[in-house]
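Worked example 2:
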Amino acid sequence: MENPVIILGAQTVGTAALDAFQSNDVVVYCLLDDDKALQNTELNDVPVMGNTDDAQLLKLLGKKCEVFVATDDTASRRSLTSMLHEEYTVAPVNAIHARASVSEHAWLGHGILVGANAVVASTAKVENGCIIGPNAVVEAKVQVGEYAQLGSGSILNAGVEVGAQAFIGSGVVVVAGVKIGAKARVGAGSVVVADVPAGQTVFGNPAAKV
């Protein structure tokens, strides 16, 4: 990546994104965060400057800077991504850690974070704005909808479908062919052996409705 990156968000997701870019020797120009307590501080020697809608800095986007949306809240990530598209005609770049393994035959959208040692296999499809935590595994023919989140060490076996904005906790195993509905939530450490309806929360081994 030739241009430096501005990261929108300096908390948990922002820290992971910064680590991913720095692992690839990508220059991060600054981070922006709406929490005033974080502004005028540094994260890994990179300054945290103004709010995430700072027009003076965002006007650099496009020819001079790339952008990555790393706010912890899913609704905020979606809103900021829409704002960038509508007002600045830019799409967030992907933040893929140097120690992650992403097949050249996988399909990735925009604004995706792939943590250290995560694996995205051939024929997997990961849509815009997803977060794939460290050591997570996305096997062949898996489909992950927009803004879904996979926790550290979670495993999606072949052919799994994860709906938009679903949350898969750390250490979850979803067996082959299972469908996780949009905005569903799977608690950490669960083993999912049956389809999960949209909006439902499940937990346990085997995972059951909470």
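The CA atoms of residues 154 and 172 lie 5 Å apart. The mean pLDDT is 96.
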